[in-house]
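Many introductory courses stop at the sequence. We go one step further.
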Amino acid sequence: MRISVLGILFFSLPVFAQVKFTQQPDRILVAIDGKPYTTFYLAPGGNKPYLWPLSTASGVVVTRHFPMEDFPGETHDHPHHRGLFFSHGDINDYNFWATEPGAQANSPNAGRMVLVKVAEAKGGAKSGTIRAIFDGEDPHGKPIMRETRTITFYALPRLRIIDYEARIDALEKLVFGDTKEGTFGIRLATSMTEAKGGRMVNAEGKETEKNVWGQRSAWVDYDGPVDGQTVGVAIFDTPRNPCYPTYWHARAYGLFAANPFGVRDFTRDKSANGSMTVEKGQTVRFRYRVVIHPGDYRQAKIAELYKEYVADR
């Protein structure tokens, strides 16, 4: 990693915050600098794996608390929007997006994610990496895909950076269907949302749901107020991902997701087909970076950080 914008952020203070993991049967606790940071929930009850809560380096929580816990002033819609997650609403006509109890789309076609094993949970002085393997099952319990999630946490003085990779090995032919219900997303704190005065902006400088939702862009940043402070979350796509630059399922109410497949929904062109086929025995990877920062996207230098992210890859 070169000493540029990110390098300056890395080395602006003399000490790194150490990353440590504590593994439990259904979750992995993540601590940074001796303090609890987040938890990786390992597909409890067959639902999708997710990270929650997530916060800035100073401890300002940027994810919605519901439905994991009640919190004053929060919305209670979409109980399947939990923290940070990777899933899709149509894989071989099975719904892996809205699998949680109470989800409106939960139905007999809901898929299940089942933990196979935690292959790695290695902390370190500057970063730490979790690698966990899951089987994606159809409603009858038959595995149709094996997913390896590799998540690396970087503990910088002013930022929290998460690199997230989902490697999918097709156990049978997979078709990722064209739907807006996907794919790599986060549900933001209610106070940060556009509906409450927050702001989303993409790499082209377009702002608001009207101009960001359904558009293709290399990155999107979403900032807003929490406890009197402006904080934000950026998600970076990479040219190595399928269908780069991705479309964005970014909503004024706080859902914020990269979705490379929902072309028909996003373009409102009924003749379009954004589906992708992965033949049995083949592998597909999705890689994203999440940057959680104080201030807005300009103060956080999101455009510069994105250039460094893709240059290092």
